[in-house]
Amino acid sequence: MAGDRQQTTDPHTGSPRRRVLTAAALAPLLAAAPTPARARPAPLPHEPITPGGRELIEPVHTTLADWKKVAKALGRTGDMKRKVMYHTGLPRRDLRVDSHHVRVKAPLALGSHVSFVRYADDSTLVMGDIVVTEHELQDFVDTLQQHRLHLTALHKHLLSQRPDVWWVHVHGHGDDPVAMARGLREAFDGTGTPPDKASDPDQKVDLDTDGIDDAMGAKGSVDDGIYKCIFVRREKITDGKLVLPPGLGSTSAFNFQPLGHGRAAISADCCMIAKEVPRVLRALRKADAKLVELHNHGLTDEPRLFFVHVWAVGDAVRLARALRHAVDATDVVPAGS
Hints:
Elements: E1 5-9, E2 16-20, H1 23-32, H2 68-74, E3 79-81, E4 85-91, E5 97-99, E6 102-104, H3 106-109, E7 111-118, E8 124-133, H4 134-146, E9 150-155, E10 161-162, E11 165-174, H5 177-189, H6 209-216, E12 221-223, E13 226-233, E14 238-239, E15 242-243, E16 251-260, E17 263-273, H7 277-286, E18 290-295, E19 301-302, E20 305-315, H8 316-328, E21 332-334
Antiparallel strand pairs: 1-2, 3-4, 4-7, 5-6, 5-10, 7-8, 8-11, 9-11, 12-13, 13-16, 13-21, 14-15, 14-19, 16-17, 17-20, 18-20
Helix pairs in contact: 2-5, 4-5, 6-8, 7-8
């Protein structure tokens, strides 16, 4: 737009003429003009304003007694972790899976599990990572959806596996944890997942665990013959408005299965934020670890989390020392700290 027009008189003819005011000439006039106040929209009554734009809801402490009905609905017993997570493990000991000529034990990479968390608004979150065969997969997902339980990730943890096995990440949030447990139970019953039964887990491991601990910078633990070093993210992780307890959906795990003579098969899962991904992947490849999958586990986590599953076979301590560089490239601490 050229500008406004102002009427003047021609000095030669005395007739009126129009003078054009340019945009440059108009600018000081417009700057001096008062600007009408703009009303700020009022916040919706059900969405109170908070510093981060969200009203975060914290988890609350619970005990095993609070989850008796959930345990009955699942048909399996669980345990408490960090006083807020009711955790139930469902290892697929029924499966005989080989990867790169290694017979994979259930605690190495075939350990299904689900965790329930109660929140300050009396709602409950359930998250899980479930092992299913390719034959079981579609019916398992259909059953979850019938019970309003959501699939948030589908991927593999192992390379060159026989038979084909998939890992399904499950998410549910609502006011009735027992109903969610019943839905999970129905989905599990459509698979070969073994029923809950007493077992005598193997607490012996033929590895230099002190050497692994020194190399990884964390004290590991034995889980049915598998040595595990676990790390958790330092920062607060949220899922929508829910604050996730440390370690729920945000762990890095390095599992060592003894192969004899100090050697181990390692199945690992590194949890990263976006800016850490390139450095971690470089560190893993320099450690001679094979990359399996790079993906997300959740839909609305913040900060956005990425996970890379890896596989390695060799001297356990040497591999642990090399994998430590990948750990150091992420903002994590040992789970027990």
